[in-house]
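Hey, I'm writing a tutorial for new members on how sequence and structure tokens pair up, and I'd like a real worked example in the thread rather than a made-up one. If someone can provide the structure for the chain below, I'll link this post from the tutorial.
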Amino acid sequence: MSSRFTTYLQRNETFAGTDAKLRIPEIPFIPFKQVYLLTCVDPRVEPAAIAGVGLGEAIVARNIGGRVTESVVNDLAWVCHLHENKTPDADWFEVAIIHHTDCGSALFADPELRRTFAERGGYDEQTASAMAVLDPAATVRHDIELLRRAPVLAGTIDKLKIGGYAYDLKTGVISTVVAPE
């Protein structure tokens, strides 16, 4: 029986035969560029392709819509804790949030899809509605504020620069919505 993943296993053999695996950060979760990138799971928004993110340069977190969730906040809190304790000379760590046009999370705005998803045990309807990315610039601003107000990040927020970006699928351009500060 064939697998759709077979192609990736073959590509991995090629990768494993290179020295690229030797050029990774020594400290887990502390990427070379000191960047935590949050974006959507949409395969049209692949960070390596649209932003040239290389192996070991950034932590790339992906979820539906690239939204700031409790899980994202907790993961970032852990990364910040490691950053402070394992790289005490580093001044700051940057968070980049990218939302994009034509995001599938916009389907959460459909009341019927939301209701049936909630019935299956997915997000409750209110949470699902809030996850919809209808206007990437608006949602990325909202998510930046969520990070800035997250209690678990309060002790490290002064060492975080948080920026928000909108990626246009038609033009391929990433635009700054909120400059990192």
